[in-house]
Design brief:
Layout lengths: L2 E4 L20 E2 L2 E2 H11 L4 E6 L3 H8 L8 E6 L6 H13 L4 E5 L2 E3 L14 E6 L11 E3 L2 E3 L7 E8 L15 H9 L3 E5 L4 E3 L3 H11 L7
Length: about 220
């Protein structure tokens, strides 16, 4: 099974840190964030990776290369200036991802999630990993009922940015920029999305403050992949 790391975002909320450095190369405990993902995926048995890029993407390619030094094979999915949003970015990478189900991981999270548990084809169009709501997102995204993801409501959890997808989820979409959320919500409405609740370590590294906090915690042995 192949895995995709989403790394094309401009990182507006991370400015000025991302004015001259792409967000995936920002460091946690002295190592670029994207390296944690590459290594965790490799250790979980994902050896074929696809990484999309836009803003300063050449720096990501120069840093990771073809993946050989990490023991993986990396192929890149370049996007135009401004990127294609999450849905459009995945759609654009489908020729590299193939006809089978694939794993997608947001490049701006930090987690010890065991990716090896997701080396399977989802029963429905998608399978999402949900986590406790962070302080900055208290309302959550989706609820979970007997392994089926439902709309928001009491007990809603936050989508972690980790998901398994079948290519069919994107089948009727036009090329170009579009968000992933509407596709997921329609599939959820049709009860075609399964999910799981992960109680381990997870952080959204979306702002300079959160990055600084994570680096402070890393000195106290914050777990990672």
């Amino acid at each position: 099974m192949k895995a995709m790391i989403l790394a094309a975002g401009r990182g507006e909320r991370m400015r000025p840190l991302t004015d001259r450095l792409p967000k995936p190369l920002l460091e946690v405990a002295g190592k670029p964030l994207i390296e944690y993902h590459v290594e965790a995926l490799r250790d979980a048995g994902f050896f074929e990776l696809v990484i999309n890029h836009a803003w300063l993407g050449e720096q990501i390619m120069q840093h990771l290369g073809d993946g050989a030094r990490f023991g993986v094979k990396i192929r890149y999915s370049p996007e135009p200036e401004g990127a294609l949003e999450t849905g459009g970015g995945i759609y654009n990478a489908l020729p590299l991802l193939g006809d089978e189900a694939f794993l997608v991981v947001n490049g701006d999270i930090y987690t010890d999630f065991p990716y090896a548990t997701l080396r399977h084809t989802p029963r429905q169009l998608a399978h999402l990993v949900l986590v406790d709501n962070p302080e900055h997102h208290p309302q959550g995204d989706f609820s979970l009922e007997n392994g089926i993801v439902t709309g928001t409501g009491k007990g809603a959890l936050t989508f972690s940015g980790i998901g398994l997808y079948r290519p069919e989820l994107f089948r009727d979409q036009p090329a170009g920029a579009f968000p992933l959320a509407p596709l997921l919500r329609e599939a959820i409405r049709c009860k075609k999305v399964t999910g799981e609740y992960y109680r381990g370590y997870w952080a959204d590294v979306g702002t300079p403050r959160r990055l600084a906090e994570l680096n402070e915690q890393s000195g106290r042995e914050v777990p990672h992949g």
